[in-house]
């Protein structure tokens, strides 16, 4: 039987655990999650194992990053199953309750995520990225890892975390790990469990739109960015039951929208609602 990870419920216990690892000359990797783990999370853990001697997974459903009409109460909490799947993969799990992270209620001091956080996901979920960066900064300060792993599926989040670390001179390396997909292209997400079988088929519209945009991006044209955007949007026109939130092509270095005649590396971002479930996805492009 694989060894179960050490469960750390307090900040003090977590700091003691990390202090002992660093004292032994070991590198520490942190994988921040909200639980309900799937193979995408496990890819982060596996990459953490490649980069460090000790892997710590945090499991905390952070209330600060949920809006008043979002799914905080409904978000799946599966700590027992998560611990079982992490056996033999992670060395420790930091699983605090809300009162441990926010003992006086919501933090009076928070991180302001900046203008990029007001676009795309931030426009649809006001305050989300301030809450996300606040808890990430707390986790990085508590664990003080050598490296922290984030999923590329949440591309805007990964960009903002990297910017946070650079702007505040935090001594940690941030690595984004490629999106893990089902065999039919659906990006893995803890929210996929909300989907009915019919909704799951509709959810493939997101990855189909990304692929349509990719195909258009390599066709000879003067305005390939515009062509790729149009090709992606056309997939949603064909599926009125999938409610598009945004589809945008950005510069991965700035996360600002690209001009129609731009060249070089790009990232296409998409968000849509399938039934009551909101999904996001993205893919790299090159023009």
Structural class: alpha/beta
- In CATH, what is the homologous superfamily of the largest domain? HUPs
CATH domain topology of the largest domain: Rossmann fold
Distance between the termini: 50 Å
Morphology call:
globular
Point out poorly predicted stretches: none
Kindly give the count of domains.
2
Q: Which bin fits the share of residues in helices?
A: 25-40%
On the 0 to 100 scale, the average pLDDT is 96
CATH top level of the largest domain is Alpha Beta
- Beta-strand portion reads 15-25%
CATH architecture of the largest domain: 3-Layer(aba) Sandwich
Q: Helix and strand succession?
A: EHEHEHEHHHEHEHHEEE
In a few lines, what is going on in this structure?
The protein has 2 domains: 6-177, Rossmann fold; 190-286, Pantoate-beta-alanine ligase, C-terminal domain (Pantoate--beta-alanine Ligase, Chain: A,domain 2), CATH 3.30.1300.10. β5, α7 (155-167) and β6 (173-177) form a beta-alpha-beta unit. The protein is 37% helix and 20% strand.
């Amino acid at each position: 039987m694989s060894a179960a990870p050490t469960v750390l419920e307090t900040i003090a216990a977590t700091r003691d655990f990390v202090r002992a690892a660093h004292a032994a000359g070991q590198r520490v990797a942190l994988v921040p999650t909200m639980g309900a783990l799937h193979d995408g999370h496990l890819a982060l853990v596996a990459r953490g194992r490649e980069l460090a001697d000790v892997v710590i997974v945090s499991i905390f459903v952070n209330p600060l990053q949920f809006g008043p009409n979002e799914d905080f109460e409904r978000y799946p909490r599966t700590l027992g199953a998560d611990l079982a799947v992490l056996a033999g993969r992670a060395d420790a799990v930091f699983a605090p309750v809300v009162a441990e992270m926010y003992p006086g209620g919501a933090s009076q001091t928070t991180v302001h995520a900046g203008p990029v956080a007001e676009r795309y996901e931030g426009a649809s979920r006001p305050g989300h990225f301030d809450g996300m960066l606040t808890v990430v900064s707390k986790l990085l300060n508590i664990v003080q890892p050598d490296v922290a792993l984030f999923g590329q599926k949440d591309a805007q989040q990964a960009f903002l975390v990297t910017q946070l670390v650079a702007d505040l001179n935090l001594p940690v390396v941030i690595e984004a790990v490629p999106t893990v997909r089902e065999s039919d292209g659906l990006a893995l997400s803890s929210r996929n469990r909300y989907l009915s079988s019919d909704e799951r088929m509709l959810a493939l519209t997101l990855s189909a739109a990304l692929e349509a945009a990719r195909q258009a991006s390599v066709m000879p044209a003067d305005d390939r960015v515009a062509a790729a955007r149009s090709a992606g949007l056309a997939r949603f026109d064909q599926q009125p039951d999938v409610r598009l939130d945004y589809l945008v092509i950005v510069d991965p270095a700035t996360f600002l929208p690209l001009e129609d005649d731009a060249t070089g590396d790009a990232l296409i971002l998409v968000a849509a609602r399938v039934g009551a479930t909101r999904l996001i996805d993205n893919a790299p492009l090159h023009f």
